[in-house]
Amino acid sequence: MATLRIAGGRVLHPDLSVTEGDVLVDDESGEIVAVGDTGDGDETLDAAGCLVMPGLVNAHCHAAMTLLRGYADDKPLETWLREDVWPVEAELTDDDIRAGTELALVELLKSGTTAFADMYFSMPEVAEAVADAGLRARLGHGVVGVGKDEDDARADHEESLAFAREYDGYADGRVQTMYTPHSLTTVDEALLREYVPAAREAGVPLHFHANETRDEVDPIVDERGERPLEYADDVGMLGESDFVAHGVHSDAAEIALIAERGTAVVHCPASNMKLASGAAPIPAYRREGVTVALGTDGAASNNDLDLFDEMRDAAMLGKHAANDASAVPAEAVVEMATAGGADALGFDAGRIAAGKKADLAVVDFEAAHLTPTHDAVSNLAYATRGSDVKHTVCDGDVLVRDREVLTLDEDAVRERATERARDLVARAE
Ligand SMILES: CSC[C@H]1O[C@@H](n2cnc3c(O)ncnc32)[C@H](O)[C@@H]1O
Ligand SMILES: [Zn+2]
Predict the structure, then answer these.
(1) CATH class label, 56-345
(2) Are domains 3-54+351-405 and 56-345 of this chain identical in fold?
(3) First and final C-alpha spacing in the chain
(4) Is the CB of 160 under 6 A from ligand 1?
(5) Residue 212 counted as an annotated binding residue
(6) What is the pLDDT of residues 138-167, one digit of tens each?
Protein backbone atom coordinates (compact mmCIF):
# COMPACT_ATOMS: atom_id res chain seq x y z
CA MET A 1 0.00 0.00 0.00
CA ALA A 2 1.39 3.45 -0.97
CA THR A 3 0.12 6.24 1.24
CA LEU A 4 -0.16 9.99 0.94
CA ARG A 5 -0.29 12.17 4.07
CA ILE A 6 -1.98 15.54 3.70
CA ALA A 7 -0.13 17.16 6.52
CA GLY A 8 -0.06 20.19 8.76
CA GLY A 9 -3.51 21.64 8.14
CA ARG A 10 -6.89 21.72 9.81
CA VAL A 11 -9.53 19.18 8.88
CA LEU A 12 -13.27 19.71 8.31
CA HIS A 13 -15.07 16.73 9.88
CA PRO A 14 -18.48 15.32 8.85
CA ASP A 15 -20.19 17.16 11.75
CA LEU A 16 -18.55 20.35 10.36
CA SER A 17 -16.28 20.72 13.39
CA VAL A 18 -12.67 21.64 12.60
CA THR A 19 -9.53 20.31 14.31
CA GLU A 20 -5.82 20.36 13.57
CA GLY A 21 -4.73 17.08 12.03
CA ASP A 22 -3.58 15.14 9.01
CA VAL A 23 -5.41 12.96 6.52
CA LEU A 24 -3.75 9.71 5.43
CA VAL A 25 -4.94 8.17 2.18
CA ASP A 26 -4.16 4.94 0.38
CA ASP A 27 -3.62 5.71 -3.28
CA GLU A 28 -4.30 2.10 -4.34
CA SER A 29 -7.76 1.73 -2.79
CA GLY A 30 -8.34 5.48 -3.19
CA GLU A 31 -9.70 5.61 0.36
CA ILE A 32 -9.03 7.61 3.49
CA VAL A 33 -7.12 5.44 5.97
CA ALA A 34 -6.87 7.70 9.01
CA VAL A 35 -7.64 11.25 10.17
CA GLY A 36 -5.91 13.22 12.95
CA ASP A 37 -2.66 11.89 14.34
CA THR A 38 -2.01 9.56 11.42
CA GLY A 39 1.73 8.91 11.46
CA ASP A 40 3.88 9.22 8.33
CA GLY A 41 2.87 8.46 4.76
CA ASP A 42 5.07 7.41 1.85
CA GLU A 43 4.50 10.86 0.35
CA THR A 44 3.43 14.18 1.87
CA LEU A 45 1.21 16.97 0.56
CA ASP A 46 1.74 20.21 2.48
CA ALA A 47 -1.46 21.65 4.00
CA ALA A 48 0.10 24.17 6.41
CA GLY A 49 -2.18 27.21 6.73
CA CYS A 50 -4.91 25.31 4.90
CA LEU A 51 -8.28 23.74 5.59
CA VAL A 52 -8.63 20.18 4.29
CA MET A 53 -12.24 19.65 3.26
CA PRO A 54 -14.17 17.05 1.26
CA GLY A 55 -13.87 17.62 -2.49
CA LEU A 56 -16.85 19.59 -3.77
CA VAL A 57 -19.58 17.82 -5.75
CA ASN A 58 -21.22 19.60 -8.69
CA ALA A 59 -24.45 17.63 -8.94
CA HIS A 60 -25.87 19.21 -12.13
CA CYS A 61 -23.74 20.34 -15.03
CA HIS A 62 -23.49 20.40 -18.81
CA ALA A 63 -19.69 20.57 -18.88
CA ALA A 64 -19.07 21.23 -22.56
CA MET A 65 -21.31 24.31 -22.40
CA THR A 66 -18.14 26.14 -21.32
CA LEU A 67 -17.82 26.70 -25.10
CA LEU A 68 -20.99 28.83 -24.87
CA ARG A 69 -19.93 30.90 -21.84
CA GLY A 70 -21.03 34.44 -22.61
CA TYR A 71 -22.52 33.44 -25.98
CA ALA A 72 -26.12 34.36 -25.07
CA ASP A 73 -27.01 36.07 -21.81
CA ASP A 74 -29.90 37.93 -20.22
CA LYS A 75 -32.82 35.91 -21.57
CA PRO A 76 -35.29 33.58 -19.84
CA LEU A 77 -34.83 29.81 -20.15
CA GLU A 78 -37.24 28.92 -22.94
CA THR A 79 -36.22 31.83 -25.22
CA TRP A 80 -32.53 31.26 -24.48
CA LEU A 81 -32.74 27.54 -25.33
CA ARG A 82 -34.84 27.90 -28.49
CA GLU A 83 -33.30 31.08 -29.97
CA ASP A 84 -29.66 30.64 -29.02
CA VAL A 85 -28.55 27.41 -27.36
CA TRP A 86 -30.27 24.64 -29.32
CA PRO A 87 -29.39 26.07 -32.77
CA VAL A 88 -25.70 26.24 -31.89
CA GLU A 89 -25.75 22.86 -30.10
CA ALA A 90 -27.01 21.33 -33.36
CA GLU A 91 -23.57 22.14 -34.81
CA LEU A 92 -21.54 20.52 -32.01
CA THR A 93 -19.05 17.79 -32.96
CA ASP A 94 -17.43 15.14 -30.76
CA ASP A 95 -14.19 17.15 -30.84
CA ASP A 96 -16.00 20.31 -29.71
CA ILE A 97 -17.50 18.45 -26.78
CA ARG A 98 -14.14 16.96 -25.82
CA ALA A 99 -12.55 20.44 -25.91
CA GLY A 100 -15.37 22.09 -23.94
CA THR A 101 -15.41 19.29 -21.38
CA GLU A 102 -11.65 19.50 -20.83
CA LEU A 103 -11.99 23.24 -20.29
CA ALA A 104 -14.69 22.51 -17.70
CA LEU A 105 -12.50 19.90 -15.99
CA VAL A 106 -9.66 22.38 -15.58
CA GLU A 107 -12.06 24.85 -13.98
CA LEU A 108 -13.69 22.21 -11.77
CA LEU A 109 -10.41 20.75 -10.55
CA LYS A 110 -8.78 24.12 -9.88
CA SER A 111 -11.75 25.16 -7.75
CA GLY A 112 -11.76 21.98 -5.64
CA THR A 113 -14.49 19.95 -7.35
CA THR A 114 -13.74 16.23 -7.35
CA ALA A 115 -17.06 14.85 -8.63
CA PHE A 116 -19.79 16.05 -10.95
CA ALA A 117 -22.92 14.92 -12.75
CA ASP A 118 -23.07 15.68 -16.46
CA MET A 119 -26.00 15.46 -18.85
CA TYR A 120 -25.00 16.20 -22.44
CA PHE A 121 -24.14 14.75 -25.85
CA SER A 122 -21.12 12.73 -27.17
CA MET A 123 -20.82 11.18 -23.74
CA PRO A 124 -18.07 8.67 -24.65
CA GLU A 125 -15.86 11.73 -25.23
CA VAL A 126 -16.85 13.10 -21.82
CA ALA A 127 -16.11 9.74 -20.19
CA GLU A 128 -12.65 9.62 -21.81
CA ALA A 129 -11.88 13.14 -20.67
CA VAL A 130 -12.95 12.31 -17.10
CA ALA A 131 -10.92 9.09 -17.15
CA ASP A 132 -7.78 10.98 -18.22
CA ALA A 133 -8.29 13.94 -15.86
CA GLY A 134 -8.73 11.69 -12.80
CA LEU A 135 -11.91 12.98 -11.20
CA ARG A 136 -15.20 11.21 -10.51
CA ALA A 137 -18.43 11.66 -12.48
CA ARG A 138 -21.93 10.37 -13.05
CA LEU A 139 -22.62 10.78 -16.77
CA GLY A 140 -25.72 10.57 -18.95
CA HIS A 141 -26.56 11.15 -22.60
CA GLY A 142 -29.34 13.76 -22.51
CA VAL A 143 -32.54 12.83 -24.37
CA VAL A 144 -34.57 15.63 -26.01
CA GLY A 145 -37.64 14.83 -28.11
CA VAL A 146 -38.33 18.38 -29.35
CA GLY A 147 -38.21 18.55 -33.16
CA LYS A 148 -37.73 14.79 -33.61
CA ASP A 149 -39.98 12.19 -35.22
CA GLU A 150 -40.70 8.99 -33.28
CA ASP A 151 -37.81 7.00 -34.78
CA ASP A 152 -35.25 9.69 -33.96
CA ALA A 153 -36.67 10.21 -30.48
CA ARG A 154 -36.53 6.46 -29.85
CA ALA A 155 -32.93 6.34 -31.10
CA ASP A 156 -32.06 9.08 -28.60
CA HIS A 157 -33.44 7.02 -25.67
CA GLU A 158 -31.60 3.95 -26.99
CA GLU A 159 -28.35 5.94 -27.12
CA SER A 160 -28.83 7.11 -23.55
CA LEU A 161 -29.36 3.55 -22.33
CA ALA A 162 -26.55 2.09 -24.44
CA PHE A 163 -24.10 4.64 -23.03
CA ALA A 164 -25.35 4.03 -19.49
CA ARG A 165 -24.90 0.26 -19.83
CA GLU A 166 -21.51 0.39 -21.51
CA TYR A 167 -19.76 3.01 -19.38
CA ASP A 168 -21.05 2.26 -15.88
CA GLY A 169 -17.94 1.51 -13.79
CA TYR A 170 -15.54 2.87 -16.43
CA ALA A 171 -12.16 4.34 -15.35
CA ASP A 172 -11.77 1.97 -12.37
CA GLY A 173 -15.27 2.86 -11.20
CA ARG A 174 -14.71 6.63 -11.19
CA VAL A 175 -17.23 6.97 -14.01
CA GLN A 176 -20.77 5.87 -13.26
CA THR A 177 -23.75 6.51 -15.47
CA MET A 178 -27.41 7.49 -15.48
CA TYR A 179 -30.40 7.69 -17.81
CA THR A 180 -31.14 11.35 -18.48
CA PRO A 181 -34.38 12.44 -20.16
CA HIS A 182 -33.98 16.21 -20.47
CA SER A 183 -37.25 17.23 -18.76
CA LEU A 184 -40.92 16.36 -18.34
CA THR A 185 -41.96 18.75 -21.14
CA THR A 186 -39.29 17.94 -23.74
CA VAL A 187 -39.63 14.15 -23.74
CA ASP A 188 -42.65 12.17 -24.90
CA GLU A 189 -44.68 10.31 -22.24
CA ALA A 190 -45.06 7.04 -24.17
CA LEU A 191 -41.31 6.76 -24.65
CA LEU A 192 -40.68 7.59 -21.00
CA ARG A 193 -43.08 4.80 -20.00
CA GLU A 194 -41.11 2.44 -22.20
CA TYR A 195 -37.56 3.47 -21.28
CA VAL A 196 -37.79 4.24 -17.55
CA PRO A 197 -38.34 0.52 -16.80
CA ALA A 198 -35.41 -0.29 -19.10
CA ALA A 199 -33.22 2.08 -17.07
CA ARG A 200 -34.37 0.34 -13.88
CA GLU A 201 -33.42 -2.98 -15.41
CA ALA A 202 -30.01 -1.58 -16.31
CA GLY A 203 -29.61 -0.52 -12.66
CA VAL A 204 -28.79 3.13 -13.37
CA PRO A 205 -30.38 6.16 -11.70
CA LEU A 206 -32.44 8.83 -13.46
CA HIS A 207 -31.62 12.50 -13.60
CA PHE A 208 -33.79 15.16 -15.27
CA HIS A 209 -34.73 18.85 -15.13
CA ALA A 210 -38.00 19.45 -13.26
CA ASN A 211 -40.06 22.41 -12.08
CA GLU A 212 -37.41 24.86 -13.24
CA THR A 213 -39.77 27.60 -14.47
CA ARG A 214 -43.46 28.41 -14.22
CA ASP A 215 -43.66 28.11 -18.02
CA GLU A 216 -42.64 24.47 -17.66
CA VAL A 217 -45.05 23.69 -14.80
CA ASP A 218 -48.22 25.35 -16.12
CA PRO A 219 -48.71 23.28 -19.31
CA ILE A 220 -48.33 20.04 -17.37
CA VAL A 221 -50.88 21.14 -14.79
CA ASP A 222 -53.26 22.42 -17.52
CA GLU A 223 -53.01 19.32 -19.70
CA ARG A 224 -52.84 16.60 -17.08
CA GLY A 225 -54.53 18.09 -14.03
CA GLU A 226 -51.62 17.00 -11.88
CA ARG A 227 -48.36 18.55 -10.73
CA PRO A 228 -45.14 17.72 -12.64
CA LEU A 229 -43.60 15.62 -9.88
CA GLU A 230 -46.88 13.70 -9.49
CA TYR A 231 -46.66 12.94 -13.23
CA ALA A 232 -42.98 11.94 -12.83
CA ASP A 233 -43.96 9.62 -9.97
CA ASP A 234 -46.72 8.09 -12.06
CA VAL A 235 -44.15 7.27 -14.76
CA GLY A 236 -41.83 5.79 -12.10
CA MET A 237 -39.19 8.51 -12.25
CA LEU A 238 -38.84 9.20 -8.54
CA GLY A 239 -36.63 6.45 -7.16
CA GLU A 240 -34.27 6.47 -4.18
CA SER A 241 -31.17 6.82 -6.31
CA ASP A 242 -32.69 9.41 -8.69
CA PHE A 243 -32.03 13.14 -8.51
CA VAL A 244 -33.85 16.05 -10.13
CA ALA A 245 -32.32 19.34 -11.16
CA HIS A 246 -33.83 22.65 -10.00
CA GLY A 247 -37.16 21.91 -8.30
CA VAL A 248 -37.84 25.64 -8.13
CA HIS A 249 -41.63 25.61 -8.48
CA SER A 250 -42.51 22.57 -6.36
CA ASP A 251 -45.51 22.83 -4.08
CA ALA A 252 -45.82 21.32 -0.59
CA ALA A 253 -47.39 18.08 -1.86
CA GLU A 254 -44.58 17.57 -4.39
CA ILE A 255 -41.95 18.21 -1.73
CA ALA A 256 -43.61 15.66 0.56
CA LEU A 257 -43.79 13.21 -2.35
CA ILE A 258 -40.11 13.32 -3.25
CA ALA A 259 -39.19 13.20 0.43
CA GLU A 260 -41.22 9.99 0.70
CA ARG A 261 -39.62 8.54 -2.44
CA GLY A 262 -36.07 9.40 -1.29
CA THR A 263 -35.30 11.33 -4.50
CA ALA A 264 -32.68 14.10 -4.18
CA VAL A 265 -32.90 17.66 -5.48
CA VAL A 266 -30.06 19.62 -7.03
CA HIS A 267 -30.29 23.34 -6.30
CA CYS A 268 -28.76 25.59 -9.00
CA PRO A 269 -29.11 29.09 -7.52
CA ALA A 270 -26.90 31.03 -9.95
CA SER A 271 -28.62 29.61 -13.04
CA ASN A 272 -32.04 30.16 -11.43
CA MET A 273 -31.20 33.80 -10.70
CA LYS A 274 -29.60 34.50 -14.08
CA LEU A 275 -32.51 33.04 -16.09
CA ALA A 276 -34.93 34.61 -13.59
CA SER A 277 -36.48 31.18 -13.03
CA GLY A 278 -37.23 31.78 -9.35
CA ALA A 279 -35.97 30.69 -5.93
CA ALA A 280 -36.23 27.01 -4.96
CA PRO A 281 -37.89 26.31 -1.58
CA ILE A 282 -34.70 24.91 -0.04
CA PRO A 283 -35.75 25.30 3.61
CA ALA A 284 -38.91 23.26 2.89
CA TYR A 285 -36.98 20.49 1.12
CA ARG A 286 -34.55 20.28 4.02
CA ARG A 287 -37.31 20.33 6.64
CA GLU A 288 -38.97 17.37 4.88
CA GLY A 289 -35.67 15.46 4.87
CA VAL A 290 -34.95 15.66 1.13
CA THR A 291 -31.25 15.34 0.23
CA VAL A 292 -30.29 18.67 -1.35
CA ALA A 293 -27.17 19.01 -3.49
CA LEU A 294 -25.71 21.97 -5.39
CA GLY A 295 -25.09 22.34 -9.11
CA THR A 296 -23.79 25.07 -11.35
CA ASP A 297 -25.82 24.01 -14.41
CA GLY A 298 -23.88 24.80 -17.60
CA ALA A 299 -21.38 27.65 -17.85
CA ALA A 300 -23.71 29.37 -20.34
CA SER A 301 -26.27 30.09 -17.62
CA ASN A 302 -23.99 30.70 -14.63
CA ASN A 303 -21.31 31.72 -16.04
CA ASP A 304 -18.67 29.76 -14.11
CA LEU A 305 -18.28 26.33 -12.52
CA ASP A 306 -17.06 27.53 -9.11
CA LEU A 307 -19.01 25.77 -6.34
CA PHE A 308 -17.79 28.25 -3.74
CA ASP A 309 -19.78 30.88 -5.66
CA GLU A 310 -22.72 28.48 -5.68
CA MET A 311 -22.59 28.01 -1.89
CA ARG A 312 -22.65 31.74 -1.36
CA ASP A 313 -25.44 32.19 -3.91
CA ALA A 314 -27.50 29.42 -2.29
CA ALA A 315 -27.22 31.03 1.12
CA MET A 316 -27.92 34.56 -0.13
CA LEU A 317 -30.85 33.60 -2.40
CA GLY A 318 -32.38 31.40 0.31
CA LYS A 319 -32.30 34.21 2.85
CA HIS A 320 -33.57 36.80 0.38
CA ALA A 321 -36.45 34.62 -0.84
CA ALA A 322 -37.57 33.71 2.69
CA ASN A 323 -36.98 37.19 4.08
CA ASP A 324 -35.21 35.35 6.87
CA ALA A 325 -31.45 35.63 7.50
CA SER A 326 -31.38 32.17 9.06
CA ALA A 327 -33.26 30.42 6.23
CA VAL A 328 -30.23 28.83 4.49
CA PRO A 329 -27.24 29.05 6.86
CA ALA A 330 -23.54 28.48 6.17
CA GLU A 331 -23.59 24.90 7.51
CA ALA A 332 -26.43 24.00 5.14
CA VAL A 333 -24.67 25.12 1.98
CA VAL A 334 -21.36 23.48 2.93
CA GLU A 335 -23.25 20.26 3.58
CA MET A 336 -25.11 20.59 0.25
CA ALA A 337 -21.85 21.06 -1.70
CA THR A 338 -20.13 18.07 -0.08
CA ALA A 339 -22.06 15.23 1.62
CA GLY A 340 -25.39 16.18 0.00
CA GLY A 341 -23.84 16.08 -3.47
CA ALA A 342 -22.06 12.78 -2.87
CA ASP A 343 -25.27 11.22 -1.53
CA ALA A 344 -27.33 12.51 -4.46
CA LEU A 345 -24.84 11.07 -6.98
CA GLY A 346 -24.41 7.80 -5.06
CA PHE A 347 -20.70 8.21 -4.32
CA ASP A 348 -19.20 7.09 -0.99
CA ALA A 349 -17.48 10.45 -0.62
CA GLY A 350 -18.23 13.97 0.61
CA ARG A 351 -17.05 13.32 4.19
CA ILE A 352 -13.55 13.09 5.64
CA ALA A 353 -13.57 9.81 7.58
CA ALA A 354 -11.69 6.50 7.43
CA GLY A 355 -13.11 4.24 4.71
CA LYS A 356 -14.58 7.08 2.62
CA LYS A 357 -13.23 7.87 -0.84
CA ALA A 358 -10.17 10.12 -0.65
CA ASP A 359 -11.72 13.02 -2.58
CA LEU A 360 -10.37 16.20 -0.99
CA ALA A 361 -9.86 19.92 -1.54
CA VAL A 362 -7.10 21.74 0.34
CA VAL A 363 -8.05 25.40 0.72
CA ASP A 364 -5.40 28.02 1.46
CA PHE A 365 -6.80 30.08 4.34
CA GLU A 366 -3.78 32.41 4.48
CA ALA A 367 -5.40 35.13 2.38
CA ALA A 368 -6.52 38.62 3.36
CA HIS A 369 -10.15 37.89 2.38
CA LEU A 370 -10.15 34.80 4.66
CA THR A 371 -8.66 36.56 7.70
CA PRO A 372 -9.44 36.14 10.55
CA THR A 373 -10.94 32.66 10.82
CA HIS A 374 -13.56 33.04 13.53
CA ASP A 375 -15.47 30.22 11.89
CA ALA A 376 -14.04 28.09 9.07
CA VAL A 377 -17.49 27.03 7.84
CA SER A 378 -18.55 30.67 7.57
CA ASN A 379 -15.41 31.42 5.57
CA LEU A 380 -16.13 28.51 3.20
CA ALA A 381 -19.74 29.57 2.61
CA TYR A 382 -19.33 33.33 2.39
CA ALA A 383 -15.72 34.31 1.65
CA THR A 384 -13.75 31.55 -0.09
CA ARG A 385 -13.22 31.62 -3.86
CA GLY A 386 -12.37 28.71 -6.12
CA SER A 387 -8.95 30.26 -6.68
CA ASP A 388 -8.17 29.70 -2.97
CA VAL A 389 -7.91 25.96 -3.61
CA LYS A 390 -4.26 24.90 -3.41
CA HIS A 391 -4.45 21.13 -3.95
CA THR A 392 -7.17 18.78 -5.20
CA VAL A 393 -7.08 15.03 -4.55
CA CYS A 394 -9.45 12.47 -6.06
CA ASP A 395 -9.48 8.73 -5.46
CA GLY A 396 -6.24 9.19 -3.51
CA ASP A 397 -4.42 10.83 -6.44
CA VAL A 398 -3.15 14.40 -6.44
CA LEU A 399 -4.75 16.07 -9.48
CA VAL A 400 -3.94 19.69 -8.60
CA ARG A 401 -0.75 20.54 -6.72
CA ASP A 402 0.06 24.14 -5.79
CA ARG A 403 -2.76 25.34 -8.10
CA GLU A 404 -1.38 23.48 -11.14
CA VAL A 405 -3.50 20.82 -12.82
CA LEU A 406 -1.26 17.77 -13.22
CA THR A 407 -3.46 15.72 -15.53
CA LEU A 408 -4.31 18.33 -18.18
CA ASP A 409 -2.21 20.92 -20.00
CA GLU A 410 -4.16 24.04 -19.06
CA ASP A 411 -2.68 26.31 -21.78
CA ALA A 412 -3.32 23.75 -24.53
CA VAL A 413 -6.85 23.12 -23.24
CA ARG A 414 -7.63 26.85 -23.27
CA GLU A 415 -6.21 27.27 -26.77
CA ARG A 416 -8.20 24.33 -28.17
CA ALA A 417 -11.42 25.49 -26.50
CA THR A 418 -10.97 29.04 -27.81
CA GLU A 419 -10.58 27.79 -31.39
CA ARG A 420 -13.43 25.30 -31.13
CA ALA A 421 -15.80 27.89 -29.65
CA ARG A 422 -14.98 30.39 -32.40
CA ASP A 423 -15.51 27.86 -35.20
CA LEU A 424 -18.69 26.48 -33.61
CA VAL A 425 -20.33 29.86 -33.39
CA ALA A 426 -19.26 30.70 -36.95
CA ARG A 427 -20.89 27.49 -38.22
CA ALA A 428 -24.13 28.31 -36.42
CA GLU A 429 -24.45 31.81 -37.92
C1 LIG B 1 -30.08 17.03 -23.58
S2 LIG B 1 -28.54 17.51 -22.96
C3 LIG B 1 -28.91 18.84 -21.89
C4 LIG B 1 -29.64 19.98 -22.54
O5 LIG B 1 -30.03 20.86 -21.52
C6 LIG B 1 -29.84 22.17 -21.95
N7 LIG B 1 -29.81 23.06 -20.80
C8 LIG B 1 -28.80 23.78 -20.33
N9 LIG B 1 -29.18 24.47 -19.24
C10 LIG B 1 -30.47 24.15 -19.04
C11 LIG B 1 -31.42 24.53 -18.09
O12 LIG B 1 -31.16 25.39 -17.11
N13 LIG B 1 -32.66 24.03 -18.17
C14 LIG B 1 -33.00 23.17 -19.15
N15 LIG B 1 -32.12 22.78 -20.10
C16 LIG B 1 -30.88 23.27 -20.04
C17 LIG B 1 -28.58 22.09 -22.72
O18 LIG B 1 -28.39 23.21 -23.52
C19 LIG B 1 -28.79 20.80 -23.50
O20 LIG B 1 -29.50 21.05 -24.66
ZN1 LIG C 1 -29.36 21.92 -16.67
Answers:
(1) alpha beta
(2) no
(3) 55
(4) no
(5) yes
(6) 999 999 999 999 999 999 999 999 999 999
pLDDT at 220: 98
Our answer on whether the CB atom of 140 is closer than 6 Å to any ligand 1 atom is no
Using the mean position of ligand 2's atoms as its centre, give its distance from the Cα of residue 147 in Å. 19
CATH architecture designation of domain 3-54+351-405 = Roll (2.30)
The dihedral sign for the CA sequence 91, 94, 99, 105: positive
* Ligand 1: nearest atom to the Cα of 212: 13
Q: Is 89 marked as binding a ligand? A: yes
Radius of gyration of the chain (CA): 21
Percent above pLDDT 90 for the chain: 100
What average pLDDT does this structure show over 323-348? Answer: 98
Instruction: Indicate if ligand 1 lies below 6 Å from the C-beta of 119.
Output: yes
Parallel, antiparallel, or unpaired for β 207-210 and 3-7?
Answer: unpaired
**What is the ipTM, given to two decimal places?**
0.99
Q: What was the pLDDT predicted at 1?
A: 75
Q: Which ligand 1 atom is nearest residue 275's CA?
A: 12
Q: How many helices (H) and strands (E) does the chain have?
A: 16, 20
Q: How far is the CA of 120 from the centre of ligand 2 (A)?
A: 9
Could you give phi then psi for residue 42, rounded to 5 degrees? -70, -35
Question: Under a CB-based contact definition with an 8 Å cutoff, are residues 396 and 28 in contact?
Answer: yes
Q: What is the pLDDT of residue 30?
A: 98
DSSP E strands, 134-174? 136-143
* Domain segments of the chain as ranges: 3-54+351-405, 56-345
